[in-house]
Amino acid sequence: MGQIASQGQLRMSFLRWALVTVPLLLFLGFLSGRVSNSGSGNPWFDALIKPDWIPPGWVFGLVWSVLYVMMGIAIAIILNARGAKGQRAAIGLFIGQLLLNLAWSPTFFAAHKVELALGLIVAILALTVATSFAFGRIRSTAAWLLVPYMVWLCLATLLNYQVMQLNPEASSQKARASEAHIVL
Q1: Is 111 contained in some domain?
Q2: 20 to 30 A from 8, CA-CA: which of 94, 119, 160, 164?
Q3: What is the pLDDT of residue 12?
Q4: CATH number for the domain including 46?
């Protein structure tokens, strides 16, 4: 009974984790954006002054989808690393950054709290860096899968900051009542 799992068994275990984590992260990311009416089409966001370099709206959906898939694979790798030293801490860090990530869109797009959203995204980035180091101690592949996410978070932090600078009254602005809606 003390035999080690075969490579095929280990691959199947990873695939089972990935079949849960990847769709779950995609769904949670989609839900967070949908509930908060994120992106273009949001009257409050559309009325804001944005930096010239902001990517087109469709880029955000595409990039976030790819990043959530990569994050799902990364956490599946860690969940599959049975008995690895530091696994619980790494999973805890991942969950922490994910919860903050999921709170960002409602904070920015629904609550219009641009400054708070900036603080959140800085915290997300810090937790993701810590998560990446924790993942790296367990499986380097999992850590590397978070690098594009960290790069995107840097871009998003800069974008959030510039929106805040260009719209000093953004947190107090409200969309016209006839245009305001939250899609559920």
Answers
A1: yes
A2: 94
A3: 75
A4: 1.20.1260.100
